[in-house]
Amino acid sequence: MDSRVVAMQEYVRGAFADSGAHGFDHTLRVMMLCRVLGTREGADMQILIPAALFHDIARPIEEETGIPHEIKGAELAEAYLLSIDYPGDLTPGILHAILAHRYRSSKVIPETLEAKILSDADKLDAMGAVGIARTFMQAGEEGGGIPDAVEHINEKLLNLKDRMHTESARKIATERHSFLLSFLERLEIERGADSYKGC
Question: What average pLDDT is seen over the chain?
Fold first, then answer.
């Protein structure tokens, strides 16, 4: 791994004091997904990997201040990249991908391949088994329970499959979407009174 990426990874790790649904482990999974998708789609990894590492760096700041994390994250990324003399011609692509990655509230549409891949990778990490685990973590962090998590799965996660930008991501999303449906079906059975008959 490029020494600059290793240093970048450690810098970003320092921004996450606590674990959680959007903790540093999420950032690492998104980075790994970006490596897979980026290789398949022919992306510029010098843009994609830094964008993946910095995409959620300002989540803790957003929770404290309300400043959208994609905006503050792009600012932090720009300052860091400047401090290490990262190639200036790559910075605009990195910042665009960070600004455009957010599923719901971002007003920036992913226009580059790298931005589309980061958006896809971020959404993929909200699907499948990991997505379910993160959803229940987030519900607990917010004082909610199973019904809140199920509502989030129905309102957001089940819509993600049809919002992928790349063919590589669509293939992964189809499998993870099927798992979400199977999980919800099983959960409904186990939460129902009929599941206790004969016990």
Answer: 91
